[in-house]
């Protein structure tokens, strides 16, 4: 029941992340520096990871790390800072709803990248593959709808129909652009994580090393980009709470959970949970931030959901066929020291595989 365990953990992680985005948006609107926020969040996250790693390996030594794994850990750390900076910049210009809507593109982007790097098979004659391709295209169309079209303001008395963004709404478009680039980068990062975790199946150690690089890079970026020295002063207020929660939930917990999901189920499966966040973000944004719910967001989210479930259906069909093939051959998958091995127990003489 590994799939069920991964699904539960990923769902809890997603709910916490979307809820945190609502809190971060509120503080960014009050003038919190997103560059300093990213730097301190990574620092706090690294401290928690370092403690956890020390406790995890207090009696045993972690597997040795070669230069290839170290370089890939650096790439994960680099993309982590890049993604966070763009995400919170986009969140400042947009909203948690827009952020979650654009993140719905994560499965589509990840599927495309996985196909390019041959981590996913592409066979146009198979229905499951056709469903994933169609779902990918539909998801992209839905994200464009959310970004470029607002439409009627459903939750306010303002009745307007903006088919294209006006100059007053340019921040929404700018936020969508930053969030789209961040989402694509997140897909690249997931693929790199999946590639790395198969060669070095120690999620906690890998994410700790990657976060150490993120801390260095994020402080360098913040020192260059942030010109206000007062932004570095920590006070016992909601900004500090945001930084601590982000360090624990996003940097530490979700970082390890995502890497674990990549090892267990693969890059595309790990990316499939982001579309669910749009429903949570819509509700929280309206209730806690007073966001206006636009018709374009509702239609775009619905389109993205259709694309998401098309990809999910295609994935489920592939897993079903794989299970049937394993049962026919009598194959059982087991793991030893974090690496997956396949044991052939028996093959029926009367079974013919065509």
UniProtKB/TrEMBL annotation:
User: What's its membrane topology?
Assistant: Multi-pass membrane protein
Q: Name one GO cellular component term.
A: membrane
Keyword presence, Zinc-finger? no
Subcellular location(s): the record lists:
Membrane
EamA domain location is 10-147
Query: What InterPro entries is this protein classified in?
Result: EamA_dom, EmrE-like, WAT1-related
GO MF, one example:
transmembrane transporter activity
**Chain ranges passing through the membrane:** 36-57, 69-91, 97-117, 129-152, 172-192, 204-225, 237-257, 269-288, 294-313
Query: Pfam family of this protein, just one?
Result: EamA
Q: Which UniProt keywords apply?
A: Membrane, Transmembrane, Transmembrane helix
Q: What is the similarity comment for this entry? A: Belongs to the drug/metabolite transporter (DMT) superfamily. Plant drug/metabolite exporter (P-DME) (TC 2.A.7.4) family.
Kindly provide the name given to this protein in its UniProt entry.
WAT1-related protein
